[in-house]
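RECORD TYPE: inverse folding
INPUT: structure tokens
STRUCTURE:
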């Protein structure tokens, strides 16, 4: 089995065809590792934009890639084909955070005609390393940058080369070599041939706005009196409000009224529920 660490660099630019901005991939960098996580091969390719004649100042500062570099690059579909051939079969592809996957899917959809970047098995290296850090007692609430992770774990980084796709991949390789645990690593490998894999990445969560939707768990519409515990009665029908539903409920025993609010957010494979109950105080 081979291991690939893939690192893409992209630049946001206005794409007239869709009338909006797109994060266009302009560099593919990758390293191939053997079972010992030694680098056995590298891939580096600059992509020529199909619609833009320039790159942002920020992109050049970050990656060292100039407008001239970009303009002398190769078309995206050729770059993807060359990469696919280089990757070969039976490889686990890793990226630092899954934002690269979102960008790949977006570029494939908007800029390419049926060509896909070959990713068979996938692992989010940021998620893995952050898990290893947690075991070592290093807690991060937010997603950690590659530089911060390397610094926290004592892996040497030449900061001047960061955000060069190949250099970033080398840092990932060092982290992996130092913090590999077979069992925990293999548990995080995802099979991209599972239809759910890409569906999950392209799914857009939304609020359910029809109270009769089959996805709504009707038991979530039942509230109990916070004073006596009796089940409350609806005095009105559920009405849509701010992406959720509202109604007024009353307790027969306490003669109190309550505002009840509930929201159902449909996620890829679950429905998140938010409920709120507050007493209606008599108006004076
Ligand atoms: Zn009550």
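DESIGNED SEQUENCE:
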């Amino acid at each position: 089995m081979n291991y690939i660490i893939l690192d893409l660099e992209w630049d946001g630019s206005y794409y007239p065809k869709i009338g909006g901005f797109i994060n266009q991939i302009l560099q593919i960098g990758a390293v191939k590792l053997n079972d010992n996580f030694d680098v056995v091969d590298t891939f580096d390719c600059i992509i020529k934009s199909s619609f833009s004649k320039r790159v942002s100042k920020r992109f050049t500062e970050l990656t060292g890639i100039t407008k001239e570099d970009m303009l002398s690059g190769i078309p995206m579909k050729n770059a993807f084909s060359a990469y696919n051939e280089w990757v070969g079969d039976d490889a686990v592809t890793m990226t630092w955070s899954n934002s690269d996957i979102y960008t790949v899917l977006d570029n494939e959809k908007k800029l390419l005609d049926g060509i896909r970047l070959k990713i068979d098995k996938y692992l989010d290296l940021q998620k893995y390393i952050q898990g290893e850090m947690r075991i070592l007692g290093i807690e991060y609430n937010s997603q950690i940058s590659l530089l911060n992770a390397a610094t926290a774990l004592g892996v040497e980084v030449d900061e001047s080369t960061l955000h060069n796709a190949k250099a970033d991949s080398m840092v990932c390789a060092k982290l992996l070599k130092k913090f590999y645990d077979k069992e925990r690593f293999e548990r995080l490998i995802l099979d991209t041939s599972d239809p759910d894999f890409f569906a999950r990445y392209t799914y857009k969560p939304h609020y359910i706005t029809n109270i009769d939707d089959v996805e709504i768990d009707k038991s979530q519409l039942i509230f109990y009196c916070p004073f006596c515990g009796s089940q409350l009665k609806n005095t009105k029908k559920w009405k849509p409000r701010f992406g959720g539903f509202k109604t007024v409920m009353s307790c027969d025993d306490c003669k109190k009224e309550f505002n009840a609010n509930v929201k159902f957010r449909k996620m890829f494979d679950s429905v998140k529920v938010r409920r709120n109950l507050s007493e209606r105080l008599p108006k004076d």
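NOTES: Residues 100 and 263 are 31 Å apart (CA to CA).
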